[in-house]
């Protein structure tokens, strides 16, 4: 076994592909929208999660008796995702306190591993179900996946320590048990697939890559038992390379697709890569909310049919947003398509930024686009059911989202930029310092100065450059018609500046972040006759707390003929207020709303909604016509 | 114990109230829309259900060992609902074959009753959970409820036989166990409540009425454990008399409300009756589909918030329709409000008539108003998950709907008419013969001649009349603006004809059943900018099988300026066909659909949809404007 450790890596390190990712120490966020959230994650969310893992007993499960075990069958994975978050955080900051917390938690995990590599607190002990007796719902391989991801993060930011050895033993056990001559099945929740490829990338052991390939190839052939939701729920309905769109449970779907990209890239399987790329494009164009969120259904946390994207009861699970970034990032690295970075930006600003409270200790599990009824603030000390809380909650009985956010915020810098043979590509705009090397070893460094998304001006200053031409590529978002690069118009897509740069020289990209009205494809029936307000990459919404008590949210009709204006970070629209009359039967030969007053309505960023207490909310507003 | 049996009764026999129900032998359906369905129920559905109760093992559960038991925890109730259907059917027809089938099945049930009255195949035996250890989900009292309803039907149509004795022993056991000094809780699924009041009405034993009252009063005080869906799921969030609207699981909600009306009527509790009436009105005006269906959510088969009525993924469970008729019928008897009969008509024509196939051997469990993807025909010999089949299926793993329909069709004649001190009220229009007595004992008889809803002409011929004036009251449906009674305009509501009728005299009500366009309250966001086509009480829809292959269902835009026309039972609308262009991202600053051709589109009754194989379908059509 080789031991190739990239001490400064980040999530996803493909050995091939159009673009090369940078490590967490190559990109440092500077004060701004994202650094503030990364700081809150560090200062508040990580201790909050540590507190709840203890309180809930999910960490204690690693040292308790089977009878004492608490939590759902997959609760081990929350401990692993927390470890992954700590590993990135320590890699990013070098903070010894974070390192100590990592060692403490990892030690408890390591102590629970059996000599044959098996590690799961919910199966196999006296009084528990036997190992691998419930692949549909047991989540054992899923939990290994997150364990391995934590170990990969540790290996890439620290080196081969005890937790890495634990993960390697677990991975070996998985290969022994589920290899070509083993149990010919898969896990009901994908996750082991990308994890094993990543472990291959860290260790060079091709057995892990092969096992991931086997898992990807097996799925879709009805290897799992049927369930009430149907096999599409865990993507066992259609082989990965035959599917045309993502379907079923949204988190499962994007985790699996991420693993399939990893397998395709590392095995040179261009057909598989093309298949996942097609599925992703179809999903973005027909099954994605304006916010970038995915998963329309509460029942099975699943994609709906094409264009079924109701704003109310939108599920749009936070974890599906995280998984969607995992997938889009892999596709971006593999193919270089700017649409992937567009989608990442949208998910970051409107799902990842929406879920946590300002102080990082409460979270949305689902991210609805229409709140009709005032929700109550869940108590600070209670575990709430996963999706039924209407305001942000501190912890859930299925608490996947807080830890998923934590590992994303801690590794956020990785998504800002990449390199290729030609130079440096900037994908996400945030104040940051980038210091890396081009493939020929030449160091390059740039500083990004911007208040984006508040303002559209992005200044890139060259801090370090080889004495030869190279290419700086900048993404112009799809919505940014009218963008200017150093005063010259540029079109959405990628704009490449090839130049013999000098230290101190600057490039200025101006993105038109002014407010705009957005409509939906007419097949999105649920928002027919409505518009949304966006400003740059940020989706806006109206909340009842910004309306006079006499104006019900449902009575607003936006007048598109009056230009939107700005007021600080808010956008002001002109709406008429229709009168809404109750009727014993709500269907009749005519419901012509009677127009009444006109009013100015303040819209604020969707990601800030419900930050001022219970409120009703709309993203999509009916048009006045 | 008194033994007052009304051998010719029907479902719900309140001792007080504005209107008096008629028995099954007082109203006989004649050839027409409903008699055809009642015949299909008799000839096909009842044998079909008997076949599946055997095949599924749910009937065999009454004589097998605990290890051999099959089906869900509430499968006993399907056997009971089947018995209820057989009892009404035998009461209606006197068919000895039906009576023999009843006795055979009832005998198997009776043999499983324990000496203390307990009767449930899923609890209490070795290897099973203890009795009443899971009131939230165990359905033990729910099953008793359906057992008692079957016995009530038998008592009212035959007399006090073995099954009635079984039900009385079970009811006594329930009163002993859950009485004032017993377990102070309720069942997670209401149903025992109306059943006990009905048993009181049959036997005169006030203990049953008191026990029902106790169950109604206890609920809403958090006597059940909390569940992921929240206690509103089983209406244990708010006391029945304090609630303002129906909420939670739709079937549970209407069964409970039915029981509350029964308790209110029999105890003279006008406050409770007023509370349920208010809840019902709010539910009809804000939480009911155009079809009369209720329950918007798949996840918990529950009501959504006010005005959350998405056509796609409408749950609109068939059983919720049946329960909605139970409730509206009780409120009609109690208060005489014609809106109750309006709602019953709507549910009958658009939910109850929609669920079964033409031959009565396949059923919709849910009744969506928008089918986007072609569904497959489930195999004839397979049990399908309850709500995930997209076409009608022969049987479900939770197969509540077929038996609920069967008992409704067998007792359908009961909903046609009532009497009061003044005379006879006709609520539903269908070819029928009515022969009853007024409260003073005077016999009256009428014949209803009509092809309704195909045609709007309803002729009522007096066949028997006392030699004194009495009042014939006719419901004019809410939608029937322009109705004529013997050529004179009458308004929606109730029109009363007080006359010294003579045998052979006729009254003709002309209801304007021509096609019309219907819009929804603007707060029903999901159908903004859309219209539906209705014709009389029948909701219409467009199916893809009626469109040329080049015209996608989603491209139609109805032109309201062109009058609707009729073609046989179909309605023809004029639509423009917009071109739908795929885009990598479905949201933009403008989505102006480009109008193209105009086409005539055929709409057919919603209740017939999917009768010609897989099809996509819409009830609500976007407007061309």
Could you explain the architecture of this structure?
The structure is a homodimer of 625-residue chains. With 625 residues, chain A is of the alpha+beta class. Chain A has three domains: 20-369 and 380-415, Glycosyltransferase; 419-510, Immunoglobulin-like (Sandwich), CATH 2.60.40; 517-622, no CATH class. Helices cover 31% and strands 18% of the residues of chain A. Chain A has helices at residues 33-55, 76-93, 96-111, 140-157, 162-178, 192-203, 206-218, 250-267, 270-286, 318-335, 338-352, 400-410, and strands at residues 20-21, 27-29, 370-371, 417-419, 423-426, 432-437, 443-450, 457-464, 470-476, 483-485, 488-490, 493-499, 506-510, 515-520, 530-535, 538-543, 556-558, 565-567, 570-579, 587-588, 594-605, 617-618, 620-622. In chain A, the strands form three sheets. In chain A, strands 3, 14, 15, 16, 17, 18, 19, 21, 22 and 23 form a ten-stranded antiparallel β-sheet that branches. In chain A, strands 2-6-7-8-13-10-11 form a seven-stranded antiparallel β-sheet, with no helix packed on it. In chain A, a hairpin with a 6-residue loop joins strand 7 and strand 8 (457-464). The first copy, chain A, is globular. The first copy, chain A, starts with 19 loop residues before the first strand and ends with a strand. At the A-B interface, helix 9, strand 14 and strand 20 of A face helix 9, strand 14 and strand 20 of B. Strand 20 of chain A pairs antiparallel with strand 14 (515-520) of chain B, so a sheet runs across the interface.
